[in-house]
Write a structure and sequence with these properties.
Length: 392
């Protein structure tokens, strides 16, 4: 291999939210970075997410505020600072779709919330709203139930990905084929479509592609788990924005609704929660849509959906393997020599994953260094919103 092959401090593989956030954070700290993406930026899970910057409150629905709830509690504030332009990244200009997410308890269930509100940490984060403070679709004389405001943001993820791509400047590289570069028995870099690149650290943030990539590198650890979802989306001229977990009495929301602006001025409602979990995964798309239609007719009977267009989307959450396929509690980072492998486990936890990489670099005394300029390389395109190609 010629000694003139390009080099960098940190080579990141995977341009979803985790890789893009990390890339921007490291560049701000002065590191030379390159981020390699084989498809579209955000085109894995990130652009298919609901964009909620959780503070963990929904995890307390079981009545217990777990370790996960505590770890994630600081995230909304960090994102708010970044969005205001005075945080660890400058995300000013990224559209905040909603400054709050709501917990919505249909009439019959209000009593079931007593265990949820038993936790003091929850009581301090949640306030009840009524009347014209209610989200617009719930401001109807027929609405019964209680609504609580959670201090959790919902972001326009396509705008977020675009801003992070801007912060990446010339560090983004498109490459379909990645092979390990070993020298003296050590992984020292990667071949990107045949181009040898040396790096002081390689960080894999390849989402569901991580298992395949690790296999290429000859590694069996860390093990990845995939948890499938079968999401439902609908678009109608009558829809107004709604950002809410509708409670169903269990430890997961019956439905989680987020709303996303399409270019024709209409709103797209995106339905997740229990509806999209195992039982929903087992349903065929037409049955899943019929189920969602019945749910909305039951919960919001005044909603006119006669002109609605419907579609479903199957997508896997990629995470480090847990016993019983449980939800991991935090961002995850494993270290093996020069290789770091991470999953944020939640879009909201991307800052936590970046913290772990920065802590590794500091612990290993890896300071920013100078590298020769790179040849011009193709740049990966940005991905499309999740409904693109599914709804007209
Ligand atoms: P991804 O976004 O999947 O990115 C990985 C990237 O790596 C992809 O672009 C892929 O093309 C690339 N890649 C893969 N293999 C290779 C390779 N060999 N070479 C180069 N590139 C490669 N979290 C929240 O906090 N709030 C939410 O509201 C929320 N809603 C969600 C809703 C759904 C339906 C789903 C599925 C997840 C949701 N999540 C949410 C979780 C969140 O979306 C994920 O945790 C997060 O997007 C993962 O980001 P990532 O960058 O690790 O992975």
């Amino acid at each position: 291999m010629p000694q003139t092959s390009p080099s960098t401090d940190i080579l990141i593989v995977g341009g979803g939210i985790a890789g893009l956030w990390l890339n921007a954070r490291l560049r701000r700290l002065g590191y030379a970075t390159r981020l390699v993406e084989r498809g579209e930026l955000g085109g894995g899970q990130s652009l298919k997410s609901q964009g909620i910057i959780h503070g963990g409150t929904k995890y307390a629905l079981s009545g217990i505020l777990t370790g996960a709830s505590e770890a994630i509690a600081g995230m909304p504030q960090r994102w708010r600072e970044a969005l205001a332009g005075n945080g660890e990244l400058d995300l000013s200009g990224v559209r905040v779709l909603s400054d709050a997410h709501y917990l919505w308890s249909p009439g019959s269930l209000a009593g079931n919330l007593s265990s949820f509100f038993a936790s003091k940490a929850v009581r301090t984060r949640v306030g009840q709203v009524k009347g014209d403070e209610l989200p617009l679709p719930l401001q109807h004389p027929g609405f019964k139930g209680k609504v609580y405001r959670l201090s959790e943001l919902v972001l326009d993820v396509p705008g977020l990905i675009a801003r992070l791509a801007e912060l990446a400047a010339d560090s983004l590289v498109a490459s379909q084929d990645i092979e390990p570069l070993h020298e003296n028995g050590e992984l020292t870099g990667l071949y990107l479509d045949g181009l040898a690149v040396r790096a002081r650290r390689i960080v894999v943030t390849a989402g569901a592609g991580t298992a395949e990539l690790l296999a290429r590198l000859g590694l069996r650890q860390p093990v990845q788990q995939l948890r499938p979802l079968h999401m439902v989306m609908l678009k109608a001229p009558t829809l107004q924005p709604l950002y809410a977990h509708c409670l169903g009495g269990g430890s997961k929301p019956r439905i989680t609704v987020t709303s996303h602006p399409s270019t024709d001025g209409q709103w797209v409602w995106y339905l997740g929660g229990e509806l999209a979990e195992a039982t929903g995964v087992a349903r065929e798309p037409a049955t899943q849509i019929a189920f969602a239609q019945r749910e909305l007719a039951d919960l919001l009977p005044w909603l006119d959906l006669s002109a609605a267009q419907w579609a479903t989307l199957r997508v896997d959450r990629a995470e480090p393997a847990q016993s019983n396929q449980a939800r991991p509690d935090n961002a995850f980072l494993a270290e093996q020599g020069r290789l770091l492998v991470g999953w944020p486990t939640k879009l909201a936890l991307s800052p936590d994953l970046a913290d772990r990489v920065v802590a590794h670099l500091r612990h290993q005394s890896i300071e920013p260094a100078r590298h020769a300029p790179w040849p011009a390389l193709p740049r990966p395109p940005a991905g499309q919103p999740f409904w693109s190609g599914l709804l007209p």
